[in-house]
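Annotators were shown the component list below and the corresponding predicted structure, then asked to write short factual statements about the assembly.
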Amino acid sequence: MCVAAQKYVNTVTYAPKYTSSRRKVAYLKELYRRKLEVGPDEVKHPSAFGCWNHASEVYAFGKRLGEEFDEQKLAQAFIQKSFVESEKEKQKNLGLLLDVNVEDNTKLAHEGRILASDFVKAYLRYSYPHLFEEGICAIHDFLMSHSTLFHVASNLGVRDLIQSPTYPPSEEDYITTLMAVIGALTHSDLSAANNDHDVTNTKKGLSRAELFVLDFLVPQLIGRDVMEMWELANPMGLLVGLLRARGLGQPEPRMLWDAAKNTIMPVYNVGIYVDKKLIGKSPGETAAIAEEMAARDTLRNLLGMSNSRSPLQLGDQARHLQLDYRLRNASVQEVTSV
Amino acid sequence: MGSSTIPSTFLKNIAQNGIGRHVCQLQRLTLSLCKSHPSSAAARKFVEDDLLDFTKGNPGIVFYVKPRRHRAPVLTAEFLNGYKEMIDLTRCTKEEIAQWIGLMRGRSGVQIMRIRKDWHTDTPSIQGMWNPFMFKDTKLNVTDKMDKSLSEYISKYKSASQKLIEMKKLQKQQKELEQPLKESTRVIQEKKKAASH
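Structure shown to annotators:
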């Protein structure tokens, strides 16, 4: 800032600069105090600094993700409903009665959400064929949860691209935009745009959208215990039902080991035997906890969800998966009522 | 300053980048330079010679050139996670500017910190941590402490009878292995015969 200019502007709001070096510390202290009083700077959109080209940013967004987007649809994916409303309000206040037909991303987001949800379920059923439908739904709910979607969206660089009345945009805006981007991808086959009746090309857009979900959303399962997402109230009851349905005997919990009894850190190791075979075991602080955990471990082993199972098929391994969308895994009710 | 006071972190991969496909985390570059000042000479040279090639090769990075009168050239890099870094380009040659840009392009957008280890995993052991019970046979639960088998001397060498038993076992195994092989060769021969007829 030009010091001379400060003098003339307003000597009340600006701290007058020190005239002697002895006053420097006091001057800086005063500046610091005033800064604390004012509070942190308002977060501003890059366009406020005069460096912003929305069209280029939208173009680069698609290129960065390695997708061929329909430019119009992609641009639409960033327009929030609240933004359109606030713009209309602004025009009304200015006395402009323009009928601007700008479409927001609500419809695209709705389509994207349905596609993502369907794909995630089909993929999970394909990856965990023996898991109960309830478990599949629990993992699906985790992937489609607010926190997971927000985490993915906030790391895709959509913050500055989102057109919303507030900056930074709300978490809901991030999620809607992510879903709308997926929705835009389903409509983004340039050859299909020329010929609406070509079914194969529309399918191509769909499969790109599915790969997008696979590459950006599903990897959030890495490093997480998927069985913990499914809340099981009575694992032993379920185990009994499952064993009966498979024609096996009753589970027989047995104490394998225990140590440090009557201390503050005892440990019990319970194993579950079925037809005299050990099929699961787990430690616990009390015998009851250990038994419950052993039942969970046994369920893991029986449902093909053990910790040592091979990892999920992702990336290049999963480019040509044959997913069947009509397939459903067996539910707890179906299995245990047999 | 000791290492414990310097903030440290583990290796991070932003949003599992590269598991599905790799996304360049550099989002935006802003090069602010002066049109006339000699300190921006190299930056101007970069814009003239290399900028178009760079933008053609990197369509996913938006490049802004910002004229700032009589200011030192500054490069601002913005990443997908919102992190922003500024680099002072005074006294940098054209090649050095290109190197800075290359460095920013390869970064993940995580602030540089001391890394505690060169590797990191969220699940250090899939089998689970070792515990005293892990490889213990439950047979020990019902074996008396004074049982002879626990204190028996285990010889380093095999006895003659042990060796004989092992040889017999080996012979048996080999026979079992040869059995299906012979069968299959017979089947092949029969097929050949049938084909020749």
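Statements collected:
1. The radius of gyration of chain A is 29 Å.
2. Chain A has three domains: 3-38, 53-221, 231-311.
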